[in-house]
Design a protein that fits this description.
With 210 residues, the protein is α+β, with helices and mostly antiparallel strands. The protein contains five helices and eleven strands, in the order αββββββββααβααββ.
Length: 210
């Protein structure tokens, strides 16, 4: 892997080079892609935020992943089935870079710098993705709502290098992300606050137990 590689430099190279990728814009609440059809497509968030969501037969939503700038997504990371359709939905206006997984290690006709950089560093992008999936799995394996909340808060605190951080979700979406009942989650948040474990101001959380 190139020690000087960064996602931002990688995307900058893309803007003026490779013809094997596409850059698309999506508006808030627009569906970016679905995983029902196997396209071997990979996407990277250039700007904005998006969620990977699933709807059950009753129309209830679960948030599987939350994506922000430089996050990678695609159906290659999930088993595709007709009973398990997943959607990537824009939470804010988004710009997305798309490319086909099958083309990653194939040389471009123009031997462009972008494609060479991608093939050399794709393993590092996948490693970051695996770490995100492991984090999600760790949260879901917590038994109680309190454990899920505290586990997720610890992750956000570590990522921000600060005991105070902003939630990337609305409280409704947070409940969907943690796969818990919203009302029960709100009661647990109140208990954590009343018992002196956290401070909560708007969407900002401060950990008092760490």
């Amino acid at each position: 892997m190139d020690s000087n590689f960064t996602i931002d430099n990688f995307l900058t190279d893309f803007y003026n080079n490779c013809k094997n990728v596409q850059r698309k814009t999506f508006h808030k609440n627009q569906t970016i892609t679905t995983y029902i059809q196997k396209r071997n497509q990979i996407g990277i968030i250039i700007s904005g935020e998006a969620d990977l969501v699933r709807y059950d037969l009753n129309g209830d939503k679960s948030i599987i992943e939350h994506y922000t700038k430089n996050d990678i997504f695609g159906e290659a990371f999930y088993i595709i089935s007709t009973n398990n359709e997943l959607y990537v939905e824009a939470k804010k206006n988004c710009e997305i870079l798309f490319f086909n997984y099958d083309n990653i290690y194939r040389k471009c006709r123009n031997n462009c710098k972008f494609h060479q950089t991608l093939s050399e560093n794709f393993s590092s992008l996948i490693l970051n993705k695996v770490m995100d999936l492991n984090t999600r799995l760790e949260i879901l394996t917590k038994r109680s709502i309190r454990e899920k909340l505290c586990g997720y808060f610890n992750i956000l605190s570590t990522r921000n290098f600060n005991k105070t951080f902003s939630l990337p979700f609305s409280l409704t979406d947070l409940a969907d992300f943690l796969s818990v009942d919203r009302s029960a989650m709100m009661r647990e948040l109140k208990s954590l606050k009343d018992e002196g474990f956290i401070l909560k101001t708007g969407n900002k959380i401060t950990l008092l137990y760490k």
